[in-house]
Specification:
By secondary structure, this protein is α/β, with parallel strands linked by helices. It has 9 helices and 6 strands; from the N terminus they run βαααααβαβαβαββα. The protein is globular, with a radius of gyration of 18 Å.
């Protein structure tokens, strides 16, 4: 069955602003600033840690480790405050459920993923979830999506990825997968020229996914037996 591999943060749930704010808060305690533009470039485009800014200022590695732990604590606390499901996501998943297989592939830590989805109501729609702990490398490395392909038992042309960031797109393309981009407030100005299609709203996803699934089915049926 055709499979849809979903990113989590910025696609299913609105959490990127919380992660930015938690990181900014702890960096300020060592007089290191973090702007939204820096966060977009370092984290969402390159897939690197914004704590590189502290490293460049010569902050002790042990101090940086404590800052990371404090950031994670603040972030986890903010995640539990309320549901962060993106508008329209539940309806989209309902419309696709049973017509395609679906899974989540995220660089989020499992602890945070579980907090996010404790009340989201979304998990029953997915066959499996891969979090940061399931892979040695994170996006933009292809490993997360290659591992998802193996888990699903699919060939690359039997899947499509739904992402919102340049690092996610790079990961999907490096794994040989088609990728639909759903723009978010944090990634709207990104370079998505390698995407199969750029969508303005998640409500456009079902039509695109089902069109791809239908095209693939026709292609499979034409293959020599």
């Amino acid at each position: 069955m055709f499979t849809v591999l979903w990113d989590n943060d910025g696609v299913l749930v609105d959490t990127e602003g919380l992660y930015f704010q938690a990181t900014k808060t702890v960096l300020q305690t060592v007089d290191v600033g973090l702007t939204p533009e820096q966060f977009k470039e370092i984290s969402l485009r390159r897939g690197e840690s914004t704590f590189v800014l502290a490293e460049e200022r010569g902050i002790d590695p042990n101090r940086i480790a404590r800052l990371r732990a404090e950031r994670d604590r603040i972030y986890a606390e903010s995640l539990g405050a309320e549901s962060r499901v993106m508008d329209g996501v539940a309806q989209v998943l309902r419309s696709l459920h049973g017509r395609v297989r679906m899974a989540v592939v995220t660089s989020t830590r499992r602890e945070h993923f579980e907090i996010i989805h404790d009340r989201s109501g979304l998990l029953p729609y997915f066959d499996f979830v891969l979090t940061r702990e399931d892979c040695e490398h994170t996006k933009p490395h292809p490993e997360p999506y290659l591992k998802a392909l193996a888990r699903a038992g699919n060939e690359p042309d039997e899947c499509v990825v739904i992402e919102d960031s340049e690092r996610g797109l790079a990961s999907a393309k490096a794994a040989g997968l088609e990728c639909l981009i759903v723009l978010s407030d944090w990634t709207r100005d990104g370079n998505f020229s390698q995407a199969s299609k750029v969508l303005q709203n998640i409500s456009q996803v079902p039509d695109e996914v089902l069109r791809l699934a239908s095209d693939r089915q026709e292609s499979w049926e034409r293959r020599p037996r």
